[in-house]
Amino acid sequence: MQSYAQDLVIMRDGTIKQVRIVQTSLDRTLVIEGNGRHTNETYLENHDIYMLKFRTRGNVVFNEHGERILSTSQSQKFAKDASVVYYRNGREVEAYNLRMDQHVVYYETDKKGRGQSVSEPRSDIFMVCYPDGTRDILVDLQNSNWLWRQPLTGTPPVSVPVQQPKTEDKEEETSDTPTTNQRVTIITRTGGKLHVWLVSEGKQMISYKKDNSAKAPVFKMSRSRIKAIKRN
């Protein structure tokens, strides 16, 4: 029986899956879960994935629309006693003496203090993995509404007065047509099918939920990726 190296899939909720990555397309990824005789092929939607970590050839990072935003050609190895900081943009950094306050994360890049002292806005960092195996989620990547209000920055978040949008911006903002969470099937241009509840429709984007619940996260998809929307 052929044996495979273990790859990792980091989901947007922080869950880490040990799998064998078989195939990645424009909208989903095929993985093999399990070992030995007990294996199962599963498709994962790319918009649910934060990062694919190939054991032998680097990483692939997706945004909330399932679009690739970063690819690396070499896999990184980290010391067992180091924390690993995962940024929203896909960077992963080995960190020591990590601490944080309400707005800023502080860490050092060398165990003995001979590296750089780094301070980063908490809003730029998705997750911290500690040496004991615990994980700290700092940004909710599943909440697309939160992400649209929190662009990547280089400074801590500050309070600013709310300004009224310009006329042309207001027209674009109100162009979305709200729905009553209609059950639909989204067919992508690559042939993929998503069975979801439609929340709103705009000229450029649509919003949808995977579950018909008030607490379910809202996802967005560009119309350029959609071939058709079938009303169920």
Features:
mainly beta; SH3 type barrels; seven-stranded antiparallel sheet; 3 domains; 232 residues
Taken in chain order, the helices and strands follow as: EEEEEEEEEEEEEHHEEEEE
Order of strands side by side in the largest beta sheet?
4-3-2-1-5-6-7
Helix content: under 10%
Structural class designation: mainly beta
**Strand percent estimate:** over 45%
Summed up, the domain count is: 3
Summarize the structure.
This protein has two helices and 18 strands. The protein has 232 residues and is mainly beta. It is globular, with a radius of gyration of 20 Å.
Helix and strand arrangement:
Layout: E1 7-11, E2 16-24, E3 28-35, E4 38-45, E5 49-54, E6 58-62, E7 68-71, E8 83-87, E9 92-100, E10 104-108, E11 117-121, E12 125-129, E13 135-137, H1 144-149, H2 167-173, E14 177-188, E15 193-201, E16 205-209, E17 219-222, E18 226-231
Antiparallel strand pairs: 1-2, 1-5, 2-3, 3-4, 5-6, 6-7, 8-9, 8-12, 9-10, 10-11, 12-13, 14-15, 14-18, 15-16, 16-17
Characterise the protein shown here:
There is one protein chain. This protein has 232 residues and is mostly beta strands. It has three domains: 7-71; 83-149; 174-231, SH3 type barrels (Roll). Helix content is 6%, strand content 49%. It contains two helices and 18 strands. It has helices at residues 144-149, 167-173, and strands spanning 7-11, 16-24, 28-35, 38-45, 49-54, 58-62, 68-71, 83-87, 92-100, 104-108, 117-121, 125-129, 135-137, 177-188, 193-201, 205-209, 219-222, 226-231. β8 and β9 (92-100) form a beta hairpin. The longest helix has 7 residues, at 167-173. The radius of gyration is 20 Å and the shape is globular. The N and C termini lie far apart (44 Å).
